[in-house]
Design goal:
Oligomer: single chain
Shape: globular
Radius of gyration: 20 Å
Helix content: 40-55%
Structural class: alpha/beta
Number of helices: 14
Largest sheet: 5 strands, mixed
Strand order of the largest sheet: 2-1-3-10-4
Distance between the termini: 48 Å
Length: 344
């Protein structure tokens, strides 16, 4: 396993999009989630959502779907209902192996929306892709954000990762979180290795990798079931950039359908309201749909939602992310985040 020097990170991040696009074509041909029944005689515009196939990497998902309040609103049928009231038809979710590929799939016309992390969405817009941010979550501090999990007997703290081999996905939100934390900690000579989680677990178990940056849910699962160690939580480091989730839409689709943005928000907000009314039901659905144990879901799932589609704190986090990516020559060009988001 060869480490990739920091100076080659920009090229690797760009190459990642090309690599995953080929895999995305296979994933996009998988059956979509059930479509919304259409009332006789009522015109409708079809809407599909591109998303990564998220969940427990040790299990195969029962049904292709997306997560969070949008996924829950779809599960309850309230999202479909609100779209139908405004003349839209939900045609399901298209699954992709990475969120960067989901954005490429949306921009190629395979879907109208994409549900991603902040880094893929920002890098897409910085490349000049004509998409808008419909939904920006507030930054979440649930269980201190992303976790760094290590091999047994390996580094015990984040501060001890200097000179060690750390795996992550270049250009991802995990990458951004770790890079900002490492900058604040003054880590030197970290050997970065590009790895998906499926390859990271055996690499950690075989001492080929010192640490891996991943979600709290995956890290806790590996610690509980495979005896790996918790090196640290990135949110505990003051310099760590705060991260958000983003749902984007093609700009041409929004321009042709001006009533869609408010209908989308009403449908998503209905899901948020349902979560607030019964959080435990949401946790149970999340556990069942992702394959994570219920205790892991409770500990690592945020229900910190706002009553508006665009979080002001989320926009501030996006601006800092863009500045960081431009400064490190990962984002191709700066742009106005305020003009990018769709405020209602």
């Amino acid at each position: 396993m060869n480490a990739i020097p920091t100076t080659r990170r920009r090229l690797a991040a760009g190459a990642l999009g090309l690599i995953v696009l080929g895999g995305a074509l296979w994933w996009a041909l998988r059956p979509a989630a059930p479509a919304t029944p259409l009332a006789p005689g009522k015109p409708a515009v079809g809407v599909r959502i591109a998303a990564a196939a998220l969940g427990n990497p040790e299990q195969i998902s029962k049904q292709l779907q997306t997560s969070g309040p949008l996924g829950y609103a779809i599960h309850l049928g309230v999202f479909q209902r609100e779209l139908a009231h405004s003349g839209f038809r939900f045609d399901g979710v298209l699954g992709f192996p990475r969120t960067a590929a989901a954005l490429l799939g949306m921009m190629s016309g395979q879907a109208e929306l994409a549900s991603t992390g902040d880094s893929p969405a920002v890098l897409s817009r910085a490349r000049g892709e004509r998409q808008r941010a419909l939904y920006v979550t507030p930054p979440s501090d649930t269980e201190s954000g992303f976790w760094v999990v290590g091999r047994p007997g390996g580094p015990a703290t984040l501060a001890s990762l200097g000179g060690k081999r750390v795996g992550l996905l270049f250009g991802s939100t995990f990458d951004y979180g770790f890079q900002t934390a490492a900058q604040g900690l003054g880590l030197k000579d970290v050997a970065y290795t590009q790895l998906p989680s499926s390859a990271a677990l055996p690499a950690l178990q075989n001492n080929q990798l010192d640490a891996y940056v991943t979600s709290a849910a995956v890290a806790k699962l590996w610690i509980d079931r495979h005896g790996l160690t918790l090196v640290g939580k990135l949110g505990d480091v003051p310099s760590t950039g705060r991260t958000v989730s983003v749902i984007s839409a093609r700009a041409d689709f929004l321009a042709a359908n001006p009533s869609f943005a408010p209908a989308f928000w009403r449908g998503l907000k209905a899901g948020i309201d349902a979560i607030r009314q019964d959080p435990e039901a949401y946790y149970r659905w999340s556990a069942d749909s992702t394959g994570y144990p219920l205790d892991v879901v409770r500990a690592t799932t945020s229900i910190d939602f706002e009553d508006k589609a665009i979080s002001d704190a989320g926009v501030t986090a996006l601006k800092k992310l863009l500045d960081f990516r431009v400064a490190h020559q990962v984002a191709q060009a700066p742009f106005s985040v305020d003009d990018w988001v769709v405020r209602q």
